[in-house]
Specification:
- It contains 8 helices and 11 strands.
- The protein is an alpha+beta fold.
- Among the domains are: about 100 residues, Immunoglobulin-like (Sandwich), CATH 2.60.40.740; about 110 residues, no CATH class.
- The strands form 3 sheets. It has a 5-stranded antiparallel beta sheet, with no helix packed on it.
Length: about 350
């Protein structure tokens, strides 16, 4: 019995020794850093990596590098951060491209990384790394070193000259237009004939009345169309000549407006009243006038325009003799009559 017990104990010890002692599990987080290589040429780019390893998940805050790690080590682009869980460990890593433009031995400094859990916050630091930066070796196949070539003179192109020429032409055109505008203002003429002077209302009315007469609407049975067009021509004429809103007013409103105008219409006002009344009867009461009545109203429209049109006074040169003085007095009298009209 005792021998059997000793045999079991020896067998257990043999198996325990053969399987090896169990290694204690690492509980604290660790940090490592490495360079892709420790020797580069000026301007070469290599990867600098930082890795944090922990059993439990952590919130790892890597520093924010914009353009440099210091000590002449430059950061290229934006670092990439990644995390991975495998084999009961959580791995957090940051990779960045670095370069240097000064030769010699540079030091990648120690970088702090903040680790935060539910209850604690800690900071781990990477170990510094030496980075050897070498100059680009000289090309031994070249026998001589030449000076830098001066800039090459290039002929002017159209794209370079066009803005200057265009600005000069535009400035010259503006000067010419300004001179023409001032001259046209002094001569009281339209500028470049772009803006025609407004045609006098009596010329427009006489032309439209003549066209209406040639169509001979007054001699057929279409009385409504004839009086509509005839009165519309007179309404537009009164609007342009006397400044009243005749096209939008009724017969009574038009006659009231004419009463307030300082103008001697004489018998024309009463005849205009008859024409407007007949027009309203034809358009709204189906009144049928005689052909002689239509012809009379047609002739009255011409008389109304010709009798109330502005009086044009010819220009009279100024003189110092008696004859010239008489002409000037006549001109003043005509201007006074024109103002009254």
């Amino acid at each position: 019995m005792f021998r059997r017990f000793c045999l079991l104990v020896v067998s257990f010890l043999f198996i325990y020794v053969k399987s090896g002692f169990p290694q204690p599990q690492e509980t604290e987080p660790s940090i490592t850093s490495r360079l892709q290589r420790d020797t580069i040429l000026i301007g070469d780019q290599i990867t600098f990596s930082i890795e944090v390893k922990s059993i439990k998940p952590l919130r790892v805050v890597f520093p924010n590098f914009t353009d440099s790690l210091g000590n002449g080590v430059e950061v290229v682009g934006i670092p990439t951060v990644d995390s991975l869980a495998k084999a009961n460990y959580h791995h957090y890593s940051m990779d960045m491209l670095i370069t240097a433009f000064d030769s010699g031995t540079l030091v990648v400094p120690s970088i702090p990384v903040v680790l935060a859990s539910c209850h604690t916050t800690d900071t781990l630091f990477t170990q510094p790394h030496a980075l050897h930066v070498n100059l680009v070796p000289r090309d031994t196949t070249l026998k001589e070193i030449y000076d830098i070539k001066p800039p090459i003179a290039e002929p002017l192109t159209f794209a370079e000259v066009a803005p200057l020429v265009g600005s000069g032409l535009l400035l010259a055109a503006l000067v010419v237009l300004l001179v023409l505008y001032v001259r046209s203002r002094k001569q009281n003429k339209p500028f470049l004939n772009l803006f025609k002077p407004k045609e006098p209302p009596h010329l427009v009315a006489l032309r439209e009345l003549e066209q209406l007469r040639n169509e001979k609407l007054w001699a057929n049975e279409n009385h409504k169309l004839f009086y509509t067009r005839l009165v519309d021509i007179l309404r537009k004429y009164m609007e342009g000549r006397f400044g009243i809103n005749a096209p939008e007013q009724t017969t009574s409103e038009i006659l009231s407006e004419l009463e307030r105008i300082e103008y001697d219409f004489g018998h024309l006002k009463e005849e205009l009243r008859e024409l407007l009344v007949i027009s309203d009867l034809v358009k709204f009461a189906k009144h049928v006038p005689l052909i002689q009545e239509n012809e009379k109203n047609m002739n009255f429209a011409f008389d109304f325009v010709n009798s109330t049109r502005p009086v044009e006074t010819p220009e009279i040169p100024a003189t110092t003799d008696d004859t010239g003085q008489q002409l000037q007095d006549a001109q003043s009298e005509n201007q006074t009559t024109n103002k009254l009209s």
